[in-house]
Each structure stands twice: as structure tokens, then as C-alpha cells.
From TrEMBL:
Signal peptide: none annotated. It comes from the Archaea. It comes from Haloarcula saliterrae. It holds the Pfam family ABC_tran. Keywords: ATP-binding, Nucleotide-binding, Transport. SMART domains: AAA (SM00382). This is ATP-binding cassette domain-containing protein. InterPro entries: AAA+_ATPase, ABC_AA/LPS_Transport, ABC_transporter-like_ATP-bd, P-loop_NTPase. One of its GO terms (molecular function) is ATP binding. The keyword Transport applies. The keyword Ribosomal protein does not apply.
Amino acid sequence: MSTNDTAGNPNVRQTAAELATGDRTDTLLATDDLRKDFGGFTATDEIDFSVAEGELRCLIGPNGAGKSTLLNLVTGSYSPTAGSVYYNGHDITELAPHKRVQRGISMKFQVPSVYSDLTVRENARLPIQRFADGDERRRRVDEAIDSAGLAGYEDVDASQLSHGQQQQLEIGMAAALEPELLLLDEPVAGLDVAERETIAERIVRLNEERDIAFVVIEHDTDFVASIAEKVTVLHNGEIFREGTVEEIESDPEVQRIYLGGEK
């Protein structure tokens, strides 16, 4: 693993992970030449991707661009074919998914996975009970329900919630783990305009009030514009463009491959 002398102290050497994401940087997450092959198909290829502490980033791109694969590599759900994942000064490439959660990475998947026969409170308690008990557990459960906008629904079965409310519940549950980085895979898919606006407000609030960094996969460009500080465009498993929402929306090549411009 490559190393460099630490600035100001030539007797201390840093690992590649510390150089990329350590205390001397503002970078929380970084990937280095990350590749994932499925048989003869390369889903992500030499991805160099980074997220700063407290940043709110969106990932966009056509279907099959590698967006979900990238998040699954970050969470450890997939093992990379090549490359490394660095987080908060550590190389987590080989770290088990639950260990990554303990380090501060949480994820909400595209399809809600709440238990329909459990109440809102029971669902909120499930991920938290592994990490907290007593008063601390109760505090986190209450925060999860509050951040989901479901105060008053504590004893309602999840099956009685709308699809949008279930999405909000899962975001609240993921945030209750008190992560430094929260990954969301298409959190507003299938929702109406009002529900999308509600979830956008909750994401921005969690980012601002709890300083949680977000990486959000989304196809809805209006939603992306309402939350993102920076946008990364994936295409054919590679990073195609990065920039502000305005830069991405005005880029003719992005329009051509993704936003419906001329072919």
C-alpha cells in the first residue's frame, strides 16, 4: 500500500486510506480504481469517486450505468473485482457490511423493506436494537419516527402506511443509526409530487441539522435539483461528468445520453 510522510512530522507515515480520507482531509469516502465484473460484464470500471464530510451528492445516469452497483460496493454488499474503498481514514474494501454500519455507513434501498405486520415503532426499533438499549434506544426510535414525519402513527401497522410514508419511515430508520454517510437508492420512485417534496425536505433537514453526508441515486432531475450540491453522472460503468446541477443540466453530452437531448 502506498504511503507518504505526514506533513510536519516526517517520522509518521500515512496509509493510502489516510491520505485519501483521513483527518487531514475533508473527504469522508473515496474509491480508488473500483471495478466490479459480473462474469464477462463490467458493471463499474475504474471508478474514482469521493464524497466530502456533510456533502449532499446525487448520482444520475441511464439504467445500467452502474449506480446501484457502486453503492453496493460501498456498503460491502458486493466485493470489488479490483480497486479499493476508503472511509474516514480506513481501508474498508474487505470489511463486512455490518462492520461498515458500525463505522457510520447506512443505506436505504430502492424497494421499502419495512415489515408490514409490525407497527411503525416496532419497525423503527429493529435496526436500532443492535446498537443501543434502554433510554438510548428509546431516544433513537423516537427520533426515527419524528424524522420520518410519522409522530402519531407509532402504533399503526406499516401495511397501513402509504408507499411514500414507508419510504419516509425507512429513511428515518437509517438516519436513527446516526451515520456519517447515508446512501439512498431512488428514494422517491413511484411517489407523487407532494411526497417527493416532503422527502426532499427531510433529506435536506437531516443533512443540515445532523451533518449527515448523503449519496442519492435518482432519475427525477427536478428532485435532484432540489437537494443536490454536486451531481455525478455515470455512464457505461464509468464517471462521465461531475459538477453542479446547473453545469450538468446544461452539458450537451449529458443531455444526449441521459436528459433526452438529441441523439
